[in-house]
Write a structure and sequence with these properties.
The protein is built from 18 helices and two strands. By secondary structure, the chain is mainly alpha-helical. Strands 1-2 form a two-stranded antiparallel sheet. The two termini are 39 Å apart.
């Protein structure tokens, strides 16, 4: 990497005068990446509705629908730590291109199997595992790729715009997925064809980045700095990211709390789908309700700065406690718009939590280990997801959907109560407010 590209933030001109970075909207590499990942995220959101509906249609078993999501989560977990090493050592744009090509191929195979009548549970579960692996590999690489095209002083602004991508897909994806699944043409394969096309769009976007004007580099370069023998400089073992997270009390407690929330929430959408189907709600309306609920994430993006006035641990605990209340209220069968309103409420705090994780964890990681820290975080907070989604399916198999939702609320309440006892989490402070010589969040 040349010294001209290694700087962070404002770049000095030849006469020593600092040049401010371009406005984010003029950063063509970032905007191209954003458009591609927005398409990909929308496709995933569509598929997240189409897959459980397909499994339910093929088998009639909520437990098997939960098992599908569990297999996908297991694939993500198994690939998580190796994905971090790959992101630290290889060109991240190439990784994104390859994984999007793989995900498009897998989704196209599922669509063809549906159309030809050859779709079976082994095909679906194999696709779930491959999609989970691809998501893990792409997730770590994309996180570093974004940082390679955005100066560090614009990173929070870029992440806030990225919240629009994720929450916009969460708003429109479920409604679109339910609507496309309702199309009987091509044996309900339309949402899968749409998702495959969205992955190809992301692939093209990543490829086009090569031809865009380069912006000043962010906190991580395009690839890790390499030693003459080709290995990453400062590269440690695969578990380096795990040691970084688990070695600091605040990060350990925050990761545990997010693990609790992710485990319990992994299958709650499946329970919502079952509850609404028992109320004879059309699939299109189910998707619309889930999408309107997700609009809370869009509405919450402007609240990031306001909510970050709270201490980070207090903010995490408050959002997790609100989630417990919402889970309990979702058990009340008041119809799709009741579901939409409750989800909208709890989603308001999600953008602030995502940016909090970036500030508290990812930005504090050594640049040469950042891919492994990202992968370790994704792996740790996802450890309970297979059990969560499979457990939701089993609860639905043997309990009424409302009782299953109340069981989830009780389990999450226990996890939040335990994390509330962790003094280091309650008293954690933002890294910029930490006293000199202290760890982040130290007492």
């Amino acid at each position: 990497m040349s010294s001209a590209k290694a700087g962070v933030g404002a770049q000095p001109s030849g006469d020593g005068i600092a040049i401010r970075p371009l406005p984010l909207w003029r950063n063509l590499q970032f905007q191209t990446l954003w458009i591609g990942t927005s398409a990909s995220t929308l496709g995933v959101s569509v598929a997240d509705i189409a897959y459980p509906l397909t499994v339910l249609a093929v088998t009639g078993s909520p437990a098997l629908a939960g098992l599908f999501a569990a297999v996908q989560a297991i694939g993500m977990l198994l690939a998580g730590l190796p994905a971090g090493v790959l992101a630290d050592r290889c060109d991240n744009r190439t990784i994104v291109i390859c994984t999007e090509a793989g995900r498009a191929a897998v989704t196209a195979v599922v669509a063809v199997a549906l159309i030809t009548g050859w779709l079976s549970l082994p095909v679906l579960f194999a696709g779930a595992a491959l999609l989970g692996i691809g998501q893990a590999i792409k997730g770590a690489a994309q996180t570093l790729l974004l940082r390679s095209v955005v100066p560090i002083e614009q990173l929070t602004q870029a992440l806030t715009q990225d919240e629009v991508r994720m929450n916009g897909a969460a708003v429109f994806g479920p409604a679109l997925g339910g609507t496309l699944y309702a199309v009987r043409a091509l044996a309900h394969a339309v949402p899968f064809l749409f998702t495959a096309g969205s992955f190809l769009t992301a692939l093209v976007g990543a490829a086009l980045m090569k031809f865009m004007p380069e912006a000043p580099q962010g906190p991580v370069g395009r690839t890790a700095t390499r030693t003459p023998n080709g290995s990453s400089a400062g590269a440690g073992a695969m578990l380096a990211g795990v040691r970084t997270l688990w070695g600091q009390p605040v990060l350990r407690a925050a990761t545990l709390l997010i693990m609790f929330v992710n485990t319990i929430g992994a299958g709650f959408e499946l329970i919502i789908i079952v509850i609404l189907r028992h109320q004879a709600v059309p699939t299109g309306t189910i998707g619309l309700a889930l999408g309107l609920g997700a609009a809370g994430g869009l509405a919450g993006a402007p609240l990031v700065k306001v909510l970050h006035r709270l201490r980070p641990g207090v903010l995490l605990l408050a959002v997790a406690a609100l989630d417990v209340l919402v889970l309990a209220l979702l058990a009340v069968p008041f119809g799709p718009w009741w579901v939409a309103g409750l989800m909208f409420t709890v989603m308001l705090g999600l953008p602030a939590i995502r940016v909090l994780i970036d500030i508290l964890v990812i930005r504090q990681a050594p640049p040469e280990q950042r891919g492994r820290v990202v992968a370790a975080l994704m792996t740790l907070i996802g450890l309970g997801m297979p059990a969560g989604v499979a457990g939701c399916g089993l609860l639905l198999q043997y309990l009424p959907a409302q009782a299953a939702m109340l069981t989830l609320a009780s389990a999450q309440a226990a996890g939040v109560a335990y994390c509330f006892t962790r003094r280091e989490l309650r008293q954690a402070r933002w890294p910029g407010l930490a006293r000199p010589g202290r760890r982040v969040g130290g007492r």
